């Protein structure tokens, strides 16, 4: 039997050669969590619950019915299944969850806000637990594990997102558990463990469009490649799981093709690609979150003409305005209009490719390299991005100073300049694990494979935010940030263990 004790130093450095040999022989190479890890995770959970209780008791929990991503409340309450079938603007998870919250509210007599707060509170706890499990299995240093958990648990944005109904906290939760399931799969590749990994990835894709089907293909490839030599006798079962996952991946786009004539998860792709390239008057006019009295009736009439006759009795796509008075971004008109926006934007970028570089610079410096709790449009510190409020409090200011090292204000949303130390540190955080992974490329063990998958997620979302829509890039980065912290800490441990061996 192989020695299953946790090696000293880096979680896999001292036993990488033996682990690779074991992997080639199909030997189980699971390692237990680090000593003290349960206590560390428990402390992180207690701290999370205390801070979440403080924020929820002070600010309450809000469901922003005016958000573009949400269907009208009355539609979701009266006909949830029909409205979800008519959802084309977004992947289905967020509105499905909201429909379930409304159903639970009716069944229990509790308000939707009370039910939603409980659901999201549990979700945050699940995310903290997953990050703790990853850190306990990949990091040998208690200081490193505590630092990672502290950076996650002490971030005010975590609690702002928990206290506000959006997909943001769920994106982090599902990604974190995907990392946990990936480590289990790499340690002992069974069909059930692959199913867990791919299920988590599928839920991520059905939560936010940033996680494109192409990303899922990359996840599947990174899942199979390191363990293919260990699949003897289980190849058909693994292939069946992979095929089933691909079929599930295609189900929502196929629904959109059948009902709306496009194959994809969202009808907004053209809008995303056109931002800061095409001046879209109707988006800034009728579909903006403005006073309903300012909307041009002539524009409304033209938009209503784009609703096919057979869709007129389907309120999720036929009504221009939701029950709270906000514009309906799931209206039928956005399908052809956003498609045209994307076509125009692609033409402009072909003629003026320099615009893409300008947008990359703006999205990086004014988006990704900033703190996620600072509004990217107003540059105001606080929780206004998700709470609709501005709070220049000591907690956000202190966390921002530590996490992103902001040293000056920006000039404007469209005039990028370096304002944070994170602008220089982020490439290091993102790319450092690749140096160790490249050095160990011929002797990957479960830890290396997991870190490679986490690094892929970080590279994917960074590239997508830079190319497509990075104005809120910091918030997009936040979901994968625990991966970046764990992978970077793992890299530091690996380099320190290598230096120790060299000097021995």
Shape: globular
The portion of residues forming beta strands comes to under 5%
Structural class by SSE content: mainly alpha
> What does the main sheet amount to?
none
**Tally of alpha and pi helices:** 24
H/E element sequence: HHHHHHHHHHHHHHHHHHHHHHHH
Rg over C-alpha atoms, rounded to the nearest angstrom: 24 Å
Helix content: 55-70%
Number of strands: 0
Which residues sit in consecutive blocks of at least 5 with pLDDT less than 50?
Answer: 1-28
Mean pLDDT: 88
Span of the ends, CA to CA: 29 Å
Structure description:
This protein is mainly α and 504 residues long. Helices cover 63% and strands 0% of the residues. The protein has helices at residues 16-24, 37-59, 73-78, 80-85, 93-108, 112-138, 142-153, 156-162, 168-187, 191-205, 213-224, 235-260, 269-274, 281-284, 297-304, 315-318, 334-351, 354-368, 384-387, 394-403, 422-439, 446-467, 473-478, 481-503. Helix 2 runs antiparallel to helix 6 (112-138), helix 6 packs parallel to helix 24 (481-503) and helix 7 (142-153) packs antiparallel against helix 24 (481-503).
């Amino acid at each position: 039997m192989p020695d299953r004790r946790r090696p000293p130093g880096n979680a896999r450095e001292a036993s990488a050669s033996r682990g690779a040999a074991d992997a080639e022989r199909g030997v189980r190479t699971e390692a237990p969590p680090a000593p003290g890890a349960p206590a560390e995770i428990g402390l992180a959970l207690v701290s999370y619950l205390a801070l979440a209780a403080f924020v929820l008791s002070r600010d309450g929990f809000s469901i922003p019915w005016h958000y573009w991503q949400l269907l009208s409340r009355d539609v979701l309450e009266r006909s949830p299944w029909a409205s979800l079938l008519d959802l084309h603007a977004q992947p289905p998870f967020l509105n499905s969850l909201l429909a379930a919250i409304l159903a639970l509210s009716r069944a229990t007599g509790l308000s939707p806000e009370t039910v939603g707060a409980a659901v999201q509170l549990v979700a945050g706890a699940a995310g903290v637990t997953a990050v703790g499990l990853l850190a306990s299995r990949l990091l040998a240093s208690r200081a490193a594990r505590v630092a990672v958990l502290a950076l996650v648990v002490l971030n005010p944005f975590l609690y702002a997102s928990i206290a506000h109904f959006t997909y943001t906290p769920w994106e982090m939760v599902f990604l974190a558990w995907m990392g946990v399931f990936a480590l289990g799969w790499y340690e002992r590749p069974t069909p059930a463990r692959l199913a867990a990994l791919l299920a988590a990835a599928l839920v991520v894709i059905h939560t936010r469009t940033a996680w494109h089907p192409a990303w899922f293909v990359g996840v599947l490839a990174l899942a199979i490649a390191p363990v293919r030599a260990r699949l003897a006798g289980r190849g058909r079962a693994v292939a069946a799981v992979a095929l089933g996952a691909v079929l599930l991946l295609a189900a929502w786009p196929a629904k959109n093709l059948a009902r709306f004539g496009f194959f994809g998860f969202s009808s907004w792709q053209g809008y995303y690609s056109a931002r800061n390239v095409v001046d879209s008057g109707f988006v800034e006019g009728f579909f903006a979150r403005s006073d309903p009295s300012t909307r041009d009736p002539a524009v409304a009439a033209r938009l209503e003409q784009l609703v096919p006759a057979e869709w007129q009795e389907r309120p999720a796509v036929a009504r221009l305005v939701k029950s709270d008075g906000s514009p309906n971004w799931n209206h039928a008109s956005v399908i052809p209009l956003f498609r045209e926006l994307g076509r125009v934007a692609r033409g402009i970028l072909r003629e003026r490719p320099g615009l893409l570089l300008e947008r990359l610079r703006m999205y990086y410096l004014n988006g990704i390299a900033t703190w996620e709790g600072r509004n990217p449009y107003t540059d105001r510190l606080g929780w206004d991005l998700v709470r609709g409020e501005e709070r220049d409090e000591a907690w956000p200011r202190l966390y921002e100073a530590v996490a992103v090292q902001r040293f000056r204000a920006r000039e404007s949303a469209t005039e990028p300049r370096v304002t944070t130390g994170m602008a220089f540190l982020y490439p290091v955080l993102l790319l450092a694990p690749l140096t160790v992974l490249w050095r160990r490329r011929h002797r990957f063990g479960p830890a290396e494979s997991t870190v490679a998958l986490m690094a892929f997620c970080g590279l994917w979302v960074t590239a997508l935010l830079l190319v497509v829509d990075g104005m809120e890039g910091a918030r997009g980065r936040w979901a994968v940030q625990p991966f970046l912290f764990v992978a970077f800490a793992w890299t530091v441990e690996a380099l320190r263990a290598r230096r120790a061996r060299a000097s021995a």
